[in-house]
Amino acid sequence: MNDRCIERVLAFEALDSRGTPTVACAIALAGGAEVCATAPAGASTGRHEAHERRDGGARYGGRGVLGAVAAVNGEIATALRGRDAADQAVIDAALRDLDGTPSLARLGANAVLAASLACALAAAEAARLPLWRLLAPDVPPLLPLPMVNVLSGGAHAGRAVDVQDVLVIPTAAGTFAEAIEHAARVRAGTAEELRARGHGTALVADEGGLAAPLESNEEALEIVTRGIERAGVEAALALDVAATQLADGDGYRLAREDRRLDGAALAREVAGWARRYPLVSIEDPLGEDDWDAWRLVTELLGNELQLLGDDLFATSPERLAHGIALGVANAVLVKPNQAGTLSDARTTLELARREGYATVVSARSGDTEDAWLADLAVGWRAGQIKVGSTQRSERTAKWNRLLRIEAEHPGAELAPWRVARPRA
User: Fold this and answer.
1) Alpha carbon of 233 to those of 32, 169, 173, 185, 410: distances in Å?
2) Which runs of E-coded beta strand occur in 268-317?
3) CA distances (Å), 254 to each of 107, 207, 257, 271, in order?
4) CA distance 303 to 158
5) What gap in Å lies between CA 111 and CA 70, rounded to an integer?
6) 347-374: per-residue pLDDT in tens?
7) What is the pTM of this model?
8) Domains and CATH numbers, the chain
9) Which one of the listed residues 283, 335, 386, 398 is annotated catalytic?
């Protein structure tokens, strides 16, 4: 038995940033390394994601995870004890085989991911290396360009507007520290603009963004554009439409504007926004299974800006391969809890990279103080990271981790902004 062999596994029910239970998994190795990891959870979840296990019943409004915790302390712990924590691919394959369902529905993706993460962190602790260095042992750190939430709606802010988030990408920053400072200035400038229009700014959305009941979705883009101007920095907009959440029969409903659009009309609407505002990235402009409309929006915009698939690809290598074959989108959001294991998430990212798709490692709206996502973005050399805003400690934990990595490695490169490979 070597020092990396797993001796003890202990799961417990923890709370995420929304006060919703999640699975935490602590692992101890034979050599003395001890770590703990918690699984995040989304608000706008697509139906192709790996399935969380929730208890139902009265506790926490049915959102408890005692069943998933029991799965870790029982079957998963038995399967992990005695294994080498550094054998990530072997461990993740064993966890998937143990579950026996394509979506990890039996044990629960929240149970499986917490264990998968804890193994990776334990292996890094045993090696006395940061996680990012364990993942990328032979190259200097590449710091990801942040995509920072500024103004929220959709499932993140009580439908204050239909679109889920308007974000800023600090495209002119030379360092990660400068990028975060630019983003904070834009958020402050946007708050000033909201106050000038008679809106309050005291309350924040799930991911720390500002929220206000606006008359239209386009007004959200206009306000953040004015926020950039007030900040006096060079930056660009990103937009998360989260269109799956707008689905209404065979079309989409923009409730704030009392309009209903089919897929082609929504594709053209989004293309119009891209012409009128400094947008460089649009996430999920169409629903998760609206492949025809996705092809249309890719034809309209795919050579000009980043078209980012979240619900569309669900961090699934199979769904990404299908999109590549159709020539749809040009970038993929990578969320480990959508995949269920670190290995599956990394497989998706590596497929995207081989095919010229940009990659954005992403947190979830229900997140925790864990900072491992920042290490994944650096170790996987993703190029971009999407965590939330510059407020709320579960968000700043990731930014602060990246700031520390940069401070420990003076001169470390910040990934430059680029539009992904033009689609044929």
Assistant:
1) 48, 11, 9, 8, 24
2) 279-283, 306-309
3) 37, 22, 6, 16
4) 33
5) 9
6) 999 999 999 999 999 999 899 999 999 9
7) 0.95
8) 6-128 (3.30.390.10), 142-414 (3.20.20.120)
9) 335
Cα 368 from chain centre: 13
Separation of CA 203 from chain center:
22
For position 158, what pLDDT does the model report? 63
Active-site residue, selected from the candidate residues 207, 269, 288, 394 = 207
pLDDT given for residue 289 in this prediction: 95
335 catalytic? Reply is yes
What's the longest Cα–Cα distance across the chain? Answer: 65
Q: How would you label 321-356 residue by residue, b for 16+ Cβ within 10 Å and e otherwise? A: eebbeeebbbbbbbbbbbbbbbbbbbbbbebbbeee
* pLDDT score of 401: 98
Give me the pLDDT at residue 423, please.
44
Distance CA 338, CA 332 (A): 12
**Residues of the chain falling short of pLDDT 50:** 422-424
Identify whether 207 is a catalytic site residue: yes
pLDDT of residue 153: 87
Q: What sign does the CA torsion over 275, 279, 281, 283 have?
A: negative
Helix (H) or strand (E) run with residue 150 in it: strand 145-152
What token pair was written down for 85? 């924590």
Strands (E), 320-415: 331-334, 358-362, 383-388, 413-414
pLDDT tens readout for residues 45-85: 678 889 999 999 999 999 999 999 999 999 999 999 999 99
Q: What's the CA gap between 204 and 327, in Å, rounded?
A: 37
